[in-house]
Amino acid sequence: MADTDRQYDIVVWGATGVAGRLVAEYLTEQYDPSAVTLAIGGRNETRLKALAADLAEGTEWTDVPIILGDATDPASLRELAASTAVVCTTVGPYTTYGTLLVEACIGAGTDYCDLTGEVNWIRETVDQFHDAAVEAETWIVHSCGFDSVPADIGTALVQSFARETFGVPCDTVRIYVEDGSEGVSGGTLASFGELFETAAEDPVARETLANPYSLAPPGERDGVDPGQQRWPKQDPLRDEWTAPSPMAPVNERIVRRSNALLGYPWGREFRCSEVVPTGRGLRGAATAGAVAGGLGLFSAAMSVGPLRSGIRTYVFPDPGEGPTSEETDQGYFTIRVLGRGTADGNRFTVEAEFGADWGPGYGATARMLGEAGMCLYEDDTDSPLSGGVLTPAAAIGTPLADRLRAVGFTATVSEATGPGV
Ligand SMILES: NC(=O)c1ccc[n+]([C@@H]2O[C@H](COP(=O)([O-])OP(=O)(O)OC[C@H]3O[C@@H](n4cnc5c(N)ncnc54)[C@H](OP(=O)(O)O)[C@@H]3O)[C@@H](O)[C@H]2O)c1
């Protein structure tokens, strides 16, 4: 439970970046100073002051305090962690800038949530800090943005519905990335590049990317699930073709970690996969082939040192560049989660839809991280756990869907019937 006697309730750390600014804007627009005490943090005082002035315009936030520090300076991070109940951090790549903050938060008993999709780094924090975070009863919650809230909370919605309605969980969950539009930031691509860089150098990172259960607790890192789809495939639950999803490596592992952390309520045989649906017939097969081929070529290029550094230098935008608030306001996304189970010998299908009329990676992500921070601060969770290095579903669960629905997201769940399911 968050320590509510701190100077601040929530600090947005990395507020001068593309995602951090949107999180700060969201929280100051959505909540007034009587609901939550906010501060913004980063390393550049001039930019933070300019942001504080912008946040004051048209809101009741006349004076947003600033916290200065550096992600590479442990003393400044300890001070930051001691000043607040919750840190929402967007300082990435997390592989480079995240570890010292996690350590400082556990040391101060400060709850923490982030936007990382860097599986290698999540594995590092699981191995290094999970036991200490449990001991300190501190919540370290990874992947509270588009990676991996829709997949993880969508699966939690499906499984709660299945257990309440049919008395058993679904044994198979498929996550379909159906629709979406928005740009991408330099910060996200820098983190993506860092993932390939680490995989090239570190055998543990390579094992993490190869093993579908690599984010499970030590000793539980195997199971029946073969892991991510790599080729075009006729879908087993819907009458159409599917291609691999670029987010599957993180989202699937986060969902499996949720199941493990919660004590396997979805079963030891539970399987989950995330794909991009591409339609029926020849056209669907050709599109799936093109998506799989493009993704394969890009991954192959990023795996070769000189090509990787060329792409990072000349193709990716610089950190700090990315879609504007206006652009993310025009974006949208839809993720559908289908679960299949068997009750009394009869197959059933449950369907959740998770979506929003904001771009997935920034407009919607800022709201997801902001609301995850509010859940930690207000202790708004259905989790049986009391701390650890956690996932959104294991730490917060369906209350996060309720909060997101209340601020304009779609988060529905029902039994799926009719042709094709
Ligand atoms: N899960 C998702 O769906 C999702 C979506 C969006 C982003 N992300 C992730 O979120 C992270 C941020 O993305 P972004 O596009 O916002 O990146 P960005 O624009 O580059 O912002 C990075 C922030 O980190 C700060 N920073 C960098 N080095 C620092 C240091 N040594 N000490 C203190 N602060 C430091 C920057 O400060 P300055 O302004 O002073 O440079 C900036 O505020 C990335 O890892 C990205 O992959 C994830």
Brief write-up:
The protein has 2 domains: 8-146 and 362-406, NAD(P)-binding Rossmann-like Domain (Rossmann fold), CATH 3.40.50.720; 149-359 and 410-415. It has 16 helices and 14 strands. It has helices at residues 18-30, 45-56, 74-83, 94-97, 99-108, 119-135, 149-166, 186-201, 203-210, 248-261, 281-302, 305-315, 325-329, 360-378, 392-395, 398-406; strands at 8-13, 38-42, 66-68, 84-89, 111-114, 139-141, 172-181, 233-234, 241-244, 271-279, 332-343, 346-356, 388-390, 410-415.
Task: Quickly list its features.
binds NADP nicotinamide-adenine-dinucleotide phosphate; 20% strand; 46% helix; 16 helices; Rossmann fold; globular; Saccharopine_DH-like_oxidrdct; 7-stranded mixed sheet; 421 residues; Sacchrp_dh_NADP-bd; 7-stranded parallel sheet; alpha/beta
